[in-house]
Amino acid sequence: MMRRIESRVNVLSEDYQRFHAKNIERLSEFHRRQDDARFERPQRDHDRLAHHGKIFVRERIKLLLDPGTPFLEFSSLAANSEYDGDSKGASVVTGIGIVSGREVIIRADDPSIKGGAWYPLTVKKNVRCLDIAIENRLPVVHICDSAGGFLPLQSELFADQVSAGRIFRNQAILSKMGVPQLSLVFGQCTAGGAYIPALSDYAVILRGNGGIFLGGPPLVKAATGEIVDADTLGGADVHTQVSGVADYAANSEEEAILLGREIVSFWKRPDKIKKDRRKPEAPFYDPKELYGIIPDDIKIQFDMREVIARIVDGSYFHEYQPDYGKTLICGYSYIWGHRVGIIGNNGVLFNDSSLKGAHFIELCNQNRTPIVFLQNITGFMVGREYEARGICKDGAKFIMAQAGSAVPKFTVMVNGSFGAGNYGMCGRAYDGRFVFSWPNHQIGIMGAEQAANVLADVKVRQLERAGTTLTDTEIEEIRLPVIESFERESNAYYATSQIWDDGIIDPVDTRNTLGIALSVAENVPIEEPRYGVMRL
């Protein structure tokens, strides 16, 4: 039996009340932004959809999902800081849901935004959701309704590795792996978009609105002089009766969705890997108390055990090496019955905490236990003493063990994520299955104040060598633009806009989010870990 974490949170304290009020304010802002991205559209766009007999994208998804089941949406606020707000959610909805009793990825174009045209971040979001499908061997349902690439930005979405071509490459990889895909074609699939249904195992196309063609009527006329309407060029009857590009025709979106659900019901269920599972148990402590635990200032430290206690089953936690490397919390627990190893920050990473983390990662790989990283990290310790003791070498061991880990990894950015600490704690670059953030999250190479002081100090030294001395006012004029830039580009909304994570979540939803992620990760057998050379 594991021990239950003994919480020391005083819900009546002044700090708790202040933190709680600040986090409720943050959540209000988060939900306002999310609701705007999800639902707010000009009336003309709703009228246009209604005129064409189209259902709003989120209603389509609701009809597709099994009633009463959850939908784990990815990157709901993608592109929120780009394109003058013209691409809410990056013009596409992606996530994991249950269809006919099966876990699937859903990728749905949003035609209420410029006809579903793909912006560069739309492509990045599409690629990311198919990466998730590949990593977790998840079937995919595509709801296709896109006008194709947003031509004014074509240079940013065509030729790079994260490009429209990568979407189709990922579809081909899924097919090679034997992972099924279904396309529901509710609008026009033009140019590259035509390959999504063509690369799917099954395709249902809607009569009247559905269309699949490499070149739409305007392009055909411009290229060949041929005048042809969309339905004659690539409508439902053409592709189900003549070309064979699609398999089924439907007379309404509702009929197409029912047919799609029937198709998914035939798909083989994945063989989940056998793991130590227990009956789920709710946390002993109320998850809503997280609002009073996370500080109102990122510089204020808190005990990560208090977060763990409100996420894991029964608030039980077996802590590994509790008296060594105390700035890193490591241990075993269960989330929704899934055994996990947890690594959480309780301060800067010193030599001992780095070595402790590396060893614990090896132990988790030895007993095939997925790892959850809870990030609140300022980085690795700096200074003459720590360089002499080999902090770079010991930090590299932590990074090497984490990068070579074979078990599924999941990261939650619960507060700060700075410097190389982001790397050791499985930041985006380290192939975690999922990365989620809380609204208070900040990320950057260093904090805004640190960056401003470093750059100001460099400038002062340069001028002093030239015989010039700056006043305090002049130094502050150097610092302020740096602080403003870092604060803008390190906040959670900028990070999620760039798809540096898989979405911002409400802290109280962390347990459920991880439960879904852990479940889909069981579709894939765990390979043997292989580590590189560790400098001893």
In short, what is this structure?
The protein has helices at residues 14-39, 43-51, 57-64, 120-136, 164-176, 195-198, 217-224, 230-234, 236-243, 253-265, 290-293, 304-308, 351-366, 384-388, 391-404, 421-424, 448-465, 472-490, 492-497, 510-521, and strands at 71-74, 92-99, 102-109, 140-146, 181-190, 202-206, 211-213, 248-250, 318-320, 328-335, 338-345, 371-377, 409-418, 434-437, 442-444. The chain has 536 residues and is α/β, with parallel strands linked by helices.
How many extended strands? 15
Note the gap between the termini.
36 Å
C-alpha geometry? globular
Which structural class is indicated by helix and strand composition?
Answer: alpha/beta
| Unreliable segments of 5+ consecutive residues | none
Main sheet properties: 8 strands, mixed
Helix content: 25-40%
Mean pLDDT value: 93
Count of DSSP helices?
20
Q: Percent of residues in beta strands?
A: 15-25%
**How big is the Rg?**
25 Å
